[in-house]
Amino acid sequence: xxxxxxxxxxxxxxxxxxxxxxxxxATFISFLLIPxxxxxxxxxxxxxxxxxxxxxxxxxxxxxxxxxxxxxxxxAQFITGSLIDSxxxxxxxxxxxxxFIISNFVIIYTRQIEVIxxxxxxxxxxxxxxxxxxxxxxxxxxxxxxxxxxxxxxSIVWSSAPVIAPFIGGYLQQYFNWQANFYVLAxxxxxxxxxxxxxxxxxxxxxxxxxxxxxxRDYQYMLSNRRFLYGLFICGLCYxxxxxxxxxxxxxxxxxxxxxxxxxxxxxxxxxxxWMSGGFLGKATLHKPFLxxxxxxxxxxxxxxxxxxxxxxxxxxxxxxxxxxxxxxACVGFIFNNYFAYCLGRFPQMAGLASGLAGGTNFIxxxxxxxxxxxxxxxxxxxxxxxxYLAMGVLSFFILQFLLKHQAKQQ
Length: 411
Known about the structure:
This is Multidrug transporter. With 411 residues, this protein is mainly alpha-helical. The protein has 17 helices and no strands. The termini are far apart.
């Protein structure tokens, strides 16, 4: 790397480094920003049917706003990880928060679905910078068992957004309108921008060269680790399982079962609690053998899904729908917590790149798999939703079998 590039990077971070006295509050701010991606996707889920009616768009066109965010968020992370490793975390986070705030106001005041699509892509890119930087923060600042603790806790905190967001969104839709969701996102972003600017700072330990040859070499190195590679697919399928409910749940509950947006919000809240429960269980079993516990959770997931499908002829209502979905989401939350923490901590010397690759692949797979299942099956009932869950669970089963077979060969 030339002296000019090194000097440029030094000037980039000379503005402000994280002070030791602010380490605790900066950690708290990072935990507040980690759920941002889930907040953006889940807060307006109860409003999806009303957005379709208000903007005079079909259901698929409104669901695409969610998918475009997931795809852009996933794709962005493939490059944001390299950028924050090369140019630092702090300023890129501040700029991204500012652009994110503006994009929400554009969505609020437009009636053009194409403009909303564009702003959701912008939000995916800016959120990619913010969340990747904050995931890398824990690898930068902490080491050893403390790092493992925070990475596992991070996954649980991230799962708080699916708990809180739809609950808030249901009431915002009930008493205001769908635009209120994006006002809340803008206010939240503004608060985070202020806190980040005042209390946070640069944490990158060693700047890496931003060269495509080096980036590709690092990607090849990480993807050569089979457990890491398969973990990316497992995490995407697990989160994709929950996103099937996110895409279809509100339409089933509000259109087919004729409940209010508040009820749809409560249902999504329960799904978030399921994911969080799986995360807590995953953290509590960190000491257990890695692959066997994931295989057990996947087997329970498949069994519950089969019962969900088979019981339709006996009993089918909103309560059975929520109970079965809760148990399935808890299983995939358990698998995700274990595997995502492993992927993030596997390559501490390139934390930003590993965070971007893991997060990017996860959300690309989540977006493609969930939208493909919903677009193909059009879940409108407990049975069809169950078939969607089954497809995701079976794919996870085969990947885990490959991993177990590979592990047996190495022993």
